[in-house]
Design brief:
It contains nine helices and twelve strands. The protein is of the alpha/beta class. It has one domain. β10 and β11 form a beta hairpin. α1 packs across α2 and α7 crosses α9. The radius of gyration is 17 Å and the shape is globular.
């Protein structure tokens, strides 16, 4: 029986992407909002596994379209122009094929949200595209040179406005302290669902990541729990990863593997 005090994380092993996604999503209720935002990790325009492959995004569009949802792809790249990443990595082609809107969150309209509970971002520019929507964080299972891993929580750094710079458009968050910034951003704009693509993972760092075949996808409505299991697959103790531990302390989810209801399925 599913313990309500636990967070459910579903790990799907398989080769057929549509069956993997369908299988993983079958454990969770359909979105309660009409608009579904797919937020890939397009840190730049490098090939996967540095970035989220377009195939799972296309599969999710098909899945949600069939269920009657309006789907939007939204990202704010940190190390390239978002439009270039969309073009080079095949996202524009997919968007045109399914008549889906592509949004560059770096240039989005926004409203100011404030909270004294935040660590460092007491005031936050909330992108209006994300308002009243069901947000799906779709990162790659990948290591990071500063934060150890870059998974569903870290992926939300892209769900922010970007500085008008050619590179390091999210540099302000690093200056303020990247771990606390990650937690604050998720405090303001927490994904409703995390789908971590671990079919081919990225090892050795966030840029020019070395591919390694894992053949899994990780699903959870708790981004902290999703990242906890993802970190374990990469061989790390999640409670030693600062932003994951801080996110649990802030009440954003569960980072203790013993309190996670882990379901492993093969399709």
């Amino acid at each position: 029986m599913h313990n309500k005090l636990c967070s459910k994380v579903v790990v799907v092993k398989g080769e057929d992407l549509y069956q993997m996604i369908k299988g993983g999503l079958s454990y969770f209720e359909n979105p309660s909002k009409r608009i579904v935002i797919l937020k890939p990790n397009l840190i730049n325009s490098e090939d996967p596994p540095t970035t989220t492959p377009s195939e799972p995004i296309e599969t999710l569009i098909k899945y949600y379209n069939k269920a009657g949802y309006e789907v939007i792809i939204a990202e704010g790249s940190g190390w390239s122009e978002t439009e270039d990443a969309y073009e080079i990595l095949g996202y524009r082609k997919i968007a045109e094929k399914y008549e889906v809107k592509l949004v560059d969150l770096n240039k989005d309209d926004y409203e100011i949200r404030e909270s004294l509970k935040a660590f460092v971002l007491k005031s936050f520019e909330f992108p209006l595209t994300l308002k009243d929507s069901y947000i799906v964080s779709v990162p790659v299972l990948k290591e990071h040179s500063i934060t150890t891993v870059t998974l569903s929580l870290k992926n939300m750094l892209g769900a922010t406005l970007g500085a008008k710079a050619r590179f390091a458009k999210k540099g302000r968050f690093h200056k303020l302290g990247v771990d606390k910034s990650i937690v604050d951003i998720n405090f303001y704009v927490k994904p409703n669902l995390s789908i971590i693509d671990g079919r081919t993972v990225g090892v050795g760092g966030e840029l020019k990541a070395e591919p390694k075949e894992f053949g899994i996808m990780i699903f959870s409505e708790d981004p902290v729990a999703a990242d906890t299991i993802g970190a374990k697959y990469l061989g790390y103790d999640p409670l030693l990863i600062k932003h994951i531990k801080l996110a649990q302390e802030k009440g954003l989810g569960i980072a203790n593997p013993k309190k996670i209801d882990l379901v492993e399925v093969k399709v």
